[in-house]
Amino acid sequence: MKPAHNGGVQAARGTPAFTLIELMVAIAIIAVILTIGIPFVRTAIDSPRGINGAVRMVEDACRDTRAKAILEQAPAELIIRRADGSFSIGGAAGASSQAESPDVAGNEWRMADRPAGRGSSAQTEFKRPYPAKLPEGVRIEGLFINGLDWTEDEEARVLFRPNGTSDAMSIVLESDENEFRNIWLEVVTGLPEVETDRLRFRGR
């Protein structure tokens, strides 16, 4: 008669298990699925949603246009089309990089923003692809540039200069849920600010 413990060893040897090749194949399949799926997941996460997503999109568009003007040392324009709620970025046709730039007191922030050397050929990496559109259910309720009402115009352009300054802009967004946000530009820095209190909206 064989020892009793041999039966236990034989039972253990008969237990089903994965081989190394099977594990490697499974890992390879998971890697392929992740490689294909991650871009779609990232796009879904990055896509603006609702009024807050719309605010982030407009802020990014303003900052990207400002960065383009500073890094490329040439005026850039944020192009706003109210009909389809789209925002795109382009060079300012016929604008001089310095002649149209007002002298602003306090050069510290200007020097920090400006790249070394003049006529830089650096290419700007935008935060999102353009043209970018407002999310579903959000629209432009008001648009004001340099004190003028551009709400009913087919296209409006906001100028950003190489020294970091910009046109005065105030845009009011409205959602289907009756939410309102006001994004406006600080002309000295060209940076966007957000207001949620309708009594304090600018340019109205």
List keywords for this structure.
five-stranded antiparallel β-sheet; 2 domains; 204 residues; minor pseudopilin epsh fold; single chain; four-stranded antiparallel β-sheet; elongated; alpha+beta
Mean pLDDT value = 79
Global structural class: alpha+beta
CATH architecture label name of the largest domain: 3-Layer(bab) Sandwich
Number of helices in the DSSP assignment: 4
CATH superfamily of the largest domain, called what? Answer: minor pseudopilin epsh domain
Radius of gyration: 27 Å
| Sheet of most strands | 5 strands, antiparallel
Shape: elongated
Order of helices and strands: HHHEEHEEEEEEE
Distance between the termini: 100 Å
The proportion of residues forming helix, as a percent range, comes to 25-40%
Kindly give the count of domains.
2
Detailed description of the structure:
The protein has 204 residues and is of the alpha+beta class. It folds into two domains: 19-48; 51-93 and 107-114 and 124-200, minor pseudopilin epsh fold, CATH 3.55.40. The chain has helices at 4-13, 20-46, 50-72, 108-113, and strands at 76-81, 86-91, 132-133, 138-145, 148-149, 156-160, 169-175, 180-186, 191-195. It has a five-stranded antiparallel beta sheet, covered by helices on one side. Strand 4 and strand 5 (148-149) form a beta hairpin. The protein is elongated. Mean pLDDT is 79; it is low at 96-121.
Give a topology summary.
Elements: H1 4-13, H2 20-46, H3 50-72, E1 76-81, E2 86-91, H4 108-113, E3 132-133, E4 138-145, E5 148-149, E6 156-160, E7 169-175, E8 180-186, E9 191-195
